[in-house]
Amino acid sequence: MKDPNCIFCKIIAKEIPSKIAFENEEILAFHDISPQAPVHIVFIPKKHIVSLSDVKNEDSALLGNILVQIRDVAKNLGIAENGYRVVNNTGKNGGQTVFHIHFHLLAERQLHWPPG
Ligand code: 5GP
Ligand code: ZN
């Protein structure tokens, strides 16, 4: 379950402190240390999965639950009306830097398309 070399597994274990936005038995959401928008929260499964490419079919409910929690956190923060962006970076060309799957929730500024 836990990878001893993984920063996000250490955040889950509270070995690295973070500002937690949401937590339940299978999901943790915390504020990004280097925010790219006024709201920038990272959602992760507590299960160590390297990336979207490493997801198993049996993880589909877990991924669906993460999206549902993003919906709820966005609603609770009052950002749903103006809108927000959910981002998953996968692998080198996707710009992934931490190899524990995560979904960025970005909000409270106008985001542009295409992304860089
Ligand atoms: P990626 O680039 O892999 O899509 O996103 C990784 C994100 O994790 C980055 O936005 C980075 O700022 C964030 N991050 C990396 N280390 C830490 C940390 O120790 N604490 C927090 N809160 N965020 C982190
Ligand atoms: Zn991990």
UniProtKB/TrEMBL annotation:
Pfam families: HIT (PF01230)
Active-site feature positions: 102 (tele-amp-histidine intermediate)
Entries under InterPro entries matching the protein: Histidine_triad_CS, Histidine_triad_HIT, HIT-like, HIT-like_sf
Alphabetical list of Gene3D superfamilies matching this protein: HIT-like
Domain HIT: from-to ranges: 7-116
Record PROSITE patterns: HIT_1 (PS00892), HIT_2 (PS51084)
Molecular function terms from GO: catalytic activity
Histidine triad motif (motif): residue ranges: 100-104
PANTHER family, sorted: HISTIDINE TRIAD HIT PROTEIN
Official protein name in the record: Histidine triad nucleotide-binding protein
Taxonomic source organism: Leptospira tipperaryensis
